[in-house]
Design brief:
This protein is α+β, with helices and mostly antiparallel strands and 77 residues long. The chain has four helices and three strands, in the order βααββαα.
């Protein structure tokens, strides 16, 4: 997931909103720390290559999957 700083967002909100409109998901950072995920309200229907489908592979023998592992798999953070 690509990062966008708060300063970038303030300077180019229109451009960032266009990126979101094209389906891109972004991580908003402030002073180098993640503060929010920006993603389209509606986007393309997830296909078989979508990372959400790989969560089942993380669970082994019915063991729970941590939130950190889920975020790493889905958002790449």
């Amino acid at each position: 997931m690509k990062e966008v700083t708060l300063v970038e967002f303030r300077r180019n909100a229109e451009g960032i909103l266009k990126r979101l409109g094209r389906g891109e998901r972004l991580l908003l950072t402030r002073r180098g720390r993640p503060v929010a995920r920006l993603e389209p309200v509606s986007g393309p229907t997830p296909g078989p290559g979508d990372p959400i489908y790989s969560l089942a592979d993380l669970a082994q023998d019915g063991a729970p999957v941590s939130n950190r592992d889920m975020d790493r798999t889905i958002y790449g953070i």
